[in-house]
Amino acid sequence: MLWAQQADIRGTVGKTGEKPAVAVADMRGTGVAQAFMDAFNRTLYSELQDSGRLKMIPKTVYPLTVPQQPSDFHQPHPWLTDWSGPPVSANYLAFGYTAVQGNQLVLFGWFYDVSQQTTQSAQVLGKLYFGSLDQAGAIKVARRLRPNLVRYSSQYRAPSRTTACGPPRRPAGPVRRPSAEPARPAPRPGRSRTTC
């Protein structure tokens, strides 16, 4: 009697169609800039939500300590895990602040992949945005930031798992960034793998 050997087949199953979960901290302004932050924050959040490409995390579940700049992160709290774990469960965090420089409104904005272990590896975007020192300028700055947040969050890959279902997927190629910004490795959320 002949016995057939059973082949071990492994593959990766990913969640398709899952939108990246994004938390957008209410940003504050220094001095005169604070007067325009309500219009900025309202515009940024609503336009990101209206894009339909992101899962916006409600501000009611945010931690009490909200960063305004990278140096605000300290272990154990506030830390990246405050944003990546429950109840927030975000993939990304947008944060920053505004100031007045040379009679202009300047946003110091950051976008972090909060699944990373360090603030250095978490930074996806760190950029300055300029607008006029009025409500229209604040809205213009929010609208300049919005497409960058949508573009960088579109690199999100939902965590996947290995199962006995087929050949492994090819890893994603390198991320292309605008030439004005330094090239960085693509943020990749951790992947849990199990052996069949």
Please describe what this structure looks like.
The strands form two sheets. Strands 2, 3, 4, 5, 6 and 7 form a six-stranded mixed beta sheet that branches. Strands 1-8 form a two-stranded antiparallel sheet. The protein has one domain (15-159): 3-Layer(aba) Sandwich (Rossmann fold), CATH 3.40.50. Helix 1 runs parallel beside helix 4. The protein has helices at residues 37-50, 81-84, 119-122, 135-153, and strands at 11-14, 21-24, 28-29, 55-56, 92-101, 104-113, 123-132, 160-163. The radius of gyration is 20 Å and the shape is globular. It is of the alpha/beta class and 196 residues long.
Oligomer class: single chain
Based on secondary structure, the structural category is alpha/beta
Shape: globular
How many E-type strands? 8
| CATH-defined superfamily | TolB, N-terminal domain
- Note the run of SSEs as H and E: EEEHEHEEHEHE
CATH class: Alpha Beta
Give me the number of helical elements: 4
Global Rg: 20 Å
What share of residues are in beta strands? 15-25%
How would a crystallographer describe the biggest sheet? 6 strands, mixed
> Overall mean pLDDT score?
81
**CATH hierarchy: architecture:** 3-Layer(aba) Sandwich
Helix content: 10-25%
Q: Domains counted in the coordinates: how many?
A: 1
Write the CATH fold name. Answer: Rossmann fold
N- to C-terminal distance:
28 Å
